[in-house]
Amino acid sequence: MRTTSKLAALTAAAALVVTAAPAGAAPSPIPTTPAPAAAQTLPSLDGALGSQLTSLVEALRRDLGLTPEQFLDQAGIGERLAESGPRWEQAFRNSFGGVWLDEQGTGLVGVVAGEAGDLLRAEATDAGFTVQDVALTTEELTARERQVGKIVEDLPEDLRALVTGVRVDPTRNAVVVETRGGEAAQLGNLTARLKDLAEIDMTEAPDPAGDTAPFGSEGGTQSDGEPTTDGIEPATTRAGAQAEAGTGGDSGSLGSLALLNQTGVIPEGPMRTIVELLSGLTPGTGSIIDGMSQTMSDPVTPVPENQARADGPAPTGPIPGGTAYSVAVPGGILECSTGFNGELDGAPVVVTAAHCAGADGTRAALADGEEFGTMTRTERDGIDTALVAVDPEFTDRFRTNLVGAGPDTTQAITGTADPVVGQKACKTGFRTGFSCGTVSEVGAMIDVAGSRTIANAFTVDLCALPGDSGGVVFSGDKALGISSASNVAETGTCTNADTVARENGYVPRLSAVPISDVLAAHPGLTLRTN
Question: What is the pLDDT at residue 323?
Answer without folding.
Answer: 92
